[in-house]
From TrEMBL:
Keywords: FAD, Flavoprotein, Plasmid. PANTHER family: ALDEHYDE OXIDOREDUCTASE FAD-BINDING SUBUNIT PAOB, XANTHINE DEHYDROGENASE SUBUNIT C-RELATED. It comes from the Bacteria. This is Xanthine dehydrogenase family protein subunit M. Residues 1-222 form the FAD-binding PCMH-type domain. The keyword NAD does not apply. The lineage of its organism: Bacteria, Pseudomonadati, Pseudomonadota, Alphaproteobacteria, Rhodospirillales. SUPFAM superfamilies: CO dehydrogenase flavoprotein C-terminal domain-like (SSF55447), FAD-binding/transporter-associated domain-like (SSF56176). Pfam families: CO_deh_flav_C, FAD_binding_5.
């Protein structure tokens, strides 16, 4: 690990202002950043420790939603009774991610900003446009079993790793950030992440020094919720395919649906066309297949991850059966 300067921020304003020095990174739990620093994938010159800032509360909102501080540990968020009862897909997603020890340290804000687990991103001898812009992408044509099939480009096919972000995408979460000039910004989670295009190293719309202070959830959606994760082993593995879903059935027809997907996309993936394919229709096999058709219309495998496309279809259909109470 390369040497670096370290300072601890006493206020959110001081933390954001500390980014005036180039090569600076925030650190809280450090569950992703420290690994990357050890491998010299990330080589910051200065770390600003934000772990002591007063951003670790979960509070009720006047509209019936929740405000979640950026430093709330994943374990605390998953165990909160309001989250379990009103946003069960979020609790399930958090418990499906990583180990108990990591969840105790990982924070809400850090989870949203964790980097891809692409093998070539972690290998500094490999070509990776996300790590070294313009160097190429060894995952294309390489070992790409865990890579994305949606939202990719000729420059990057890395999948997004977060479980929590998938559930928050389905729940229409909004981020509140603090910029170095002291102003706040509200960013719908739908607008946070950027497709790789020809600049895969630019992953979000956050500017330098912009600090996530909290995540706001609207009132819970009506109907049933679930989070289902398909992975190579039962614990401590990233999703091959995951589904976060909420479906509301009224008078024998689907009145509302919110679906987000992990493991498939270069970001937490949500496709309005898949949801529209469900609305107003009876919950039945042909309805579920139509939603899968819409979701996967533009999916493209790269050899080793071709299996994700039929796996996503089967997983979505099974989830929709459970969410609507439809027999197999």
């Amino acid at each position: 690990m390369r040497t670096f300067e370290y300072s601890r921020a006493d206020t959110p304003q001081a933390a954001a202002a500390g980014f005036a020095t180039p090569g600076t990174r925030f650190i809280a739990g450090g569950t992703n950043l420290l690994d990357l620093m050890k491998l010299q994938v990330e080589t910051p010159d200065r770390l600003v420790d934000i772990s002591r800032l007063p951003l670790a509360d979960i509070e009720e909102r006047a509209d019936g939603g929740l405000s979640i501080g950026a430093l709330v540990p994943n374990s605390d968020l998953a165990a909160d009774r309001r989250v379990i009862s009103r946003y069960p897909m979020l609790s399930q997603a958090l418990l499906a991610g990583a180990s108990g020890q990591l969840r105790n340290k990982a924070t809400t804000g850090g989870n949203l900003l964790q980097r891809t687990r692409c093998y070539y991103f972690y290998d500094t001898d490999a070509a990776c446009n996300k790590r070294v812009p313009g160097s190429g992408c060894d995952a294309i044509g390489g070992f790409n079993r865990i890579m994305a099939v949606l939202g990719t480009s000729g420059h990057c096919i890395a999948s997004h790793p977060s479980d929590m972000a998938v559930a928050m995408r389905a729940l229409d979460a909004t981020l509140v950030t603090l910029r170095p000039d002291g102003t706040e910004r509200r960013i719908p989670l739908a607008d946070l992440y950027r497709l790789p295009g020809d600049t895969p190293h630019v992953e979000t719309v956050l500017s330098a020094g912009e600090l996530i202070t909290r995540v706001e959830l609207p009132p819970p959606p009506p109907g049933r919720q679930l989070y289902r994760k398909v992975r190579d082993r039962a614990s401590y593995a990233f999703a091959l395919v995951s589904v976060a879903g909420a479906v509301d059935v009224r008078d024998g027809r689907i009145a509302g649906a919110a679906l987000a997907f992990g493991g498939l996309g270069t970001m937490p993936w949500r496709d309005p066309a898949a949801e529209r394919a469900l609305i107003g229709r009876e919950p039945a096999a042909e309805t579920f297949e139509a939603a899968a058709d819409a979701l996967l219309a533009d999916a493209r495998g790269h050899g080793g991850n071709d299996f994700k496309i039929p796996l996503a279809r089967r997983t979505l259909v099974a989830c929709l059966r459970d969410l609507t109470g439809t027999p197999a």
